[in-house]
Input
Amino acid sequence: MDISQGSVLVTGGAGGFGGATARRLAKLGARVVLADVADERGRALADELGNGATYVRTDIMSEESIEAAVAAAVALAPLRAVVIAHGGPPPPVVGGRVVARDGSRLPLANFTHLINVYLNTAFSVSSIAAEAMAKSDPLADKQRGVIVNTASIAGFEGQVGQVAYGAAKGGIISLALNMARDLAPVGIRSMAIAPGTFLTHAFDGMGRDKAQETFGPLVLNPKRMGEPDEYALLAEQIIVNDFLNGTTIRLDGGQRF
Ligand SMILES: NC(=O)c1ccc[n+]([C@@H]2O[C@H](COP(=O)([O-])OP(=O)(O)OC[C@H]3O[C@@H](n4cnc5c(N)ncnc54)[C@H](O)[C@@H]3O)[C@@H](O)[C@H]2O)c1
Output
């Protein structure tokens, strides 16, 4: 897929994965729309990228907000790619294990919230972007666009306390092929990346050194956390390589626990 004459939408565009991917896609010539709620980081990155890059404040929990971000991308150029890499608000009730040490079960509100943040919003962005892509003129080979979702190795091997997050990411893994099948007639591909443990803003609270010390040794080889640009490199390859479709690629240095 040649995105040099098109636009791309990156949710979580001011974040670790989103920001690194936006940098690569801007270098390919695409008009990049950064959708996020981190206004300062988003605006600074849009300025850095140039080439018509725009930050659009987008609350991923609102379909109206997502629609506005997609419309902003379409206004720049035909939408050719969407990279879905956002976080979201913390759950209204804390929780982790199905049954906690005090004997109480995980509140449904916690489970539902995480499914909403990581799975339902990914479907919203995917379907709203696909609707816009389907209306565009196709490129060579009848290709119109590509959707890149972010799963997690927790979608394959969820850890203790990750039942809701793991289920949401398992859903993303399932979406990859289902959406590829549904969208094939309109020339749209669907893929997902399942990252292991990466040093992004998600670990700002913990501190980079502490995060590296804690999670680096869990990786088989190399013994360190992933760098956001390693995710971006794969996202770029998925976008430009028309033969990647309908699957989830693990990106985890061989980590299996
Ligand atoms: N970092 C990892 O180790 C890792 C591993 C597997 C999967 N993931 C997944 O990668 C995705 C991106 O995470 P990241 O590690 O780049 O984190 P990050 O914190 O660097 O980026 C997430 C971005 O989402 C934005 N965001 C938060 N709430 C939002 C909202 N309501 N609307 C729009 N944007 C919002 C944040 O402002 C931030 O810029 C997430 O889906 C996460 O589950 C991360």
